[in-house]
Amino acid sequence: MYMKAIQVTIDEGLLERLDNCQQVRSRGRSAVFREAVDAYLAKLEAEEIDRAYEVGYGAAPPEEFDDWPAEAAWLG
Fold first, then answer.
1. Do 32 and 24 form a contact (C-beta atoms < 8 A)?
2. Residue pLDDT tens, the chain, 76 long
3. Which of helix, strand or coil describes residue 53?
4. How far is Cα 60 from Cα 63, in angstroms, rounded to an integer?
5. For the chain, percent helix, then strand, then coil, each to nearest 5?
6. pTM exceeds cut of 0.85
């Protein structure tokens, strides 16, 4: 996979914490940044899906689900 080099600005305290972490030193800063950005974007995408469900279904489930508890009564 092609990877593009970018420039990132980070405050000195955070950079020091990053560089003091053994896992970061083992894996490299770039790998850690890629993983962090991927996790951040996945979180945003999940939140967007949740918002879409809330908009689509509203606060209460649609009336079509009103009889479902009775249908599941045999589970007892």
1. yes
2. 899 999 999 999 999 999 999 999 999 999 999 999 999 999 999 999 988 888 887 766 667 777 777 766 666 5
3. helix
4. 9
5. 70, 0, 30
6. no
